[in-house]
């Protein structure tokens, strides 16, 4: 490939979409070749730069994802589960790397990505940051080292616009803790406590979600036993870390065989 990879951003008008656009435009390793929004959105048909309040950049926002994907080597997608499933089929048709940062996907929806992964590279992660993915690895190791005398609680905080809970990152951390303990998260997950719930069950992995203000993302993994506590923590202060990670994943996937990957693959962890 003589040119740098062409990138399309879906959900262009969103908070994450705009951050991704700025990250790609600032990069000398990729080109922005398309921006997608839902049909009827005010940005559709406008030059993307003008829509974002700046000068024209020559990329027109479209509501036709297949047309946009056909010009791209990668699609970066932080939208909704339903939209992501539709985009996965179209990205596979275009043989474009599909980087998925969408959270709130059910196990059944994740399974529906498999056909697309037979034809194209999919990189999906609940969190694209290097720090969080290191935290995932640490969580797994600590959980493996400690027995069930240590209760495990994943505590996460996000801005008041976030619509899913627990966060995708919290679930990644819960999965890591469960894997470290040699159990299945679905069998030990404890979330949504309210009212008279009874005592905590030994061996459960708990989740607590905080929503407020403009919190970008904070995650603690608490290992609590009688007389001592261990806390592993990651705090995100700038949404740009997720955009940089997503772009790194899009570039990493360019020479990979079709299949499903995650950020641990991208980061060599």
TrEMBL record:
Binding site for NADP(+): 38
Active-site residues per Swiss-Prot or TrEMBL entry: 158, 162
List of residues binding NAD(+): 11-16, 37, 101-103, 125-128
Residue ranges of domain Dihydrodipicolinate reductase N-terminal in the record: 7-128
Residues annotated to bind (S)-2,3,4,5-tetrahydrodipicolinate: 159, 168-169
Record keywords, A-Z: Amino-acid biosynthesis, Cytoplasm, Diaminopimelate biosynthesis, Lysine biosynthesis, NAD, NADP, Oxidoreductase
Pfam family, one: DapB_N
EC identifiers of the protein: 1.17.1.8
Annotated localization: Cytoplasm
Residue ranges annotated for the Dihydrodipicolinate reductase C-terminal domain, each copy included: 131-267
Pathway assigned in UniProt: Amino-acid biosynthesis; L-lysine biosynthesis via DAP pathway; (S)-tetrahydrodipicolinate from L-aspartate: step 4/4
Reactions mediated catalytically: (S)-2,3,4,5-tetrahydrodipicolinate + NADP(+) + H2O = (2S,4S)-4-hydroxy-2,3,4,5-tetrahydrodipicolinate + NADPH + H(+); (S)-2,3,4,5-tetrahydrodipicolinate + NAD(+) + H2O = (2S,4S)-4-hydroxy-2,3,4,5-tetrahydrodipicolinate + NADH + H(+)
Protein family membership: Belongs to the DapB family.
Quaternary structure note: Homotetramer.
NCBIfam families reported for this sequence: dapB (TIGR00036)
Job of this protein: Catalyzes the conversion of 4-hydroxy-tetrahydrodipicolinate (HTPA) to tetrahydrodipicolinate.
The protein, known as: 4-hydroxy-tetrahydrodipicolinate reductase
Phylogenetic lineage: Bacteria, Pseudomonadati, Pseudomonadota, Alphaproteobacteria, Rhodobacterales
Gene: dapB
């Amino acid at each position: 490939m003589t040119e740098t990879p062409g990138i399309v951003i879906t959900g262009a008008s969103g908070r994450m979409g705009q951050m991704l656009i700025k990250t790609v435009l600032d990069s000398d390793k990729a080109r922005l070749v398309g921006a997608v929004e839902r049909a009827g959105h005010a940005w559709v048909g406008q030059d993307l730069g003008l829509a974002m309040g700046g000068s024209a950049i020559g990329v027109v926002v479209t509501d036709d994802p297949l047309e946009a994907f056909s010009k791209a080597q990668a699609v970066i997608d932080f939208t909704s589960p339903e939209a992501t499933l539709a985009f996965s089929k179209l990205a596979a048709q275009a043989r474009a790397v599909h980087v998925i940062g969408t959270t709130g996907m059910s196990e059944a929806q994740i399974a529906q990505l498999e056909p697309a992964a037979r034809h194209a590279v999919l990189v999906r992660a609940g969190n694209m940051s290097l720090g969080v993915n290191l935290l995932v690895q640490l969580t797994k190791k600590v959980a493996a080292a400690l027995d069930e005398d240590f209760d495990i609680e994943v505590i996460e905080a996000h801005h008041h616009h976030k619509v899913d809970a627990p966060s995708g990152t919290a679930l990644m951390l819960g999965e890591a803790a469960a894997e470290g303990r040699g159990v299945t998260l679905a069998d030990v997950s404890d979330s949504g406590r309210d009212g008279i719930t009874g005592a905590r069950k030994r061996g459960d992995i708990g989740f607590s979600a905080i929503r407020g203000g403009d919190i970008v993302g904070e995650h603690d993994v608490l290992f609590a036993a009688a007389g001592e506590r261990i806390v592993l923590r990651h705090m995100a202060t700038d949404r740009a870390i997720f955009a940089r990670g997503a772009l790194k994943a899009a570039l990493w996937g360019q020479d990979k065989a079709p299949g499903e990957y995650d950020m641990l693959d991208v980061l060599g962890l």
